[in-house]
Input
Amino acid sequence: MKISFIDPRIAKEGIVVIASFQDKVLPMASQAVDVLMQGELKRILKASSFTGKRNEIFSIPSPRGLEGVTQLVVLGLGKPDDLTPLILEEVGGKLASCFYKTQYKSVYIHIPHIEAPHIKDEEAIVFLANGFQLRSWTFDKYKTKQKTEDKSALETILCASSKPAVSTTFFDDMNKTTQAVLLTRTLVNEPANVINPQTLAKQALDLKNFGVDVEIFGKTELQRMGLNALLGVGQGSQYESQLVVLQWRGSDAHEAPLAIVGKGVTFDSGGLSLKPATGQEEMKGDMAGAAAVIGLMQACAMRTAKANIVGVIGLVENMPSGSAQRPGDIVKSLSGQTIEILNTDAEGRLVLADALWYTQDRFKPKFMVDLATLTGGIVVALGHERAGLFSNDDKLAQNLMGAGIDTGEKLWQMPLDAVYDKDMDSEIADVKNTGSGRGANSITAAKFLQRFINETPWAHIDIAGVEWDKKDRPLSRKGATGFGVRLLDRYIRTFYETH
Ligand code: BES
Ligand code: ZN
Ligand code: ZN
Output
């Protein structure tokens, strides 16, 4: 989809989108259209039930006075005072949802002056266009027989801007993050017969093209280094486990990096503690944390972020087989702590235990954030609306929460009280990989991770439930959401790149 910004013009063809505020109040550009229509626009709106509330859409076919225009779409923006960048993105998303099956190749959005008190006109239209793009993207590469009427033919979006050159520059920057979100979505949507630890590592290797330094460690090296907790999870798979280290150097060499760690279980069958058949296919998405790290690193590299950033992903496939890890096994983690495996389906924490320790030990980062589809419990608690946030650092937690509100990738902070930790003591080893089953699964999982964190400010984001949605969301169609890329990109932009 090609998005461009042009000087406002009165279109004579195709689909034209204009805006209305609440109570049918028309911004200036829409009033000019009404003049061309000799007052017909206002008359039609007056007679209709359209009010101009945010996300309301009203369409006028073959509007009089705009010969050649097939549809004049009026987009409700609500109250100008309420508009924020995210709301504009979501309105753009809503607009995109009207064109899922359109035959038209191009849309012209005629909203050059949004007249919102807190947002510049030339930026407002860019947020709207960005939301349009995020919401219209689909993963349809495996649909070989898609009927043309089921498919949107939309190729170009033309947006009127009061300053097209400024809008274009602003969009180009934002689009780097958006393209990274789409990469993450692609990786999560891909099935597990395509994405395995090797092929996902290969995807990460491609970031070299953008100036990211990539190291890939295979089984022999990981054994030598002692990442036995991670290796144990992957030992039942035909694919070798991998640890991938990505480095973007955008600041002084001596400055400690920011570290993002991702769970990359390319398929989680549960291992010998096999999952029930229903819903097993969803576990192809158990690498969504790793996919978000790859996306984030691409975004930061493409926009040459002024920060040093390290991305570490642990890639394994959790399968039952003659060589699989058994319940009761004890492994020695990289940290030196021994772990008793009670349930081979609680595997993400084993991967992260080694990946987190490795990251903090090697890089001494300013902070570490991990993204992981870690527990079903967080889906019970928060559904598909918010990810669970656990942190040993209030400032980090607060700032991440803020970035979540700004990007629509919302978080909710969960407790890490010391009492939950006792539940993770093992009778026979230092720690066991599941609690005693008396609830608070997501919290005991986070407490397990915390045993592998020293003084480093750390946040764990449990993204099970938000990485995928069976329904459309304001900024994504059903399927993978790309959760985490926009969130962390915003967090880094706001707090580490403004000097
Ligand atoms: N990958 C799952 C968690 C998950 C569930 C992700 C639903 C996405 C959607 C994880 O590895 C898992 O199986 N966790 C278990 C842990 C339990 C055995 C202690 C869970 O949450 O049930
Ligand atoms: Zn599992
Ligand atoms: Zn898992």
Remarks:
- The chain is about 35% helix and 20% strand.
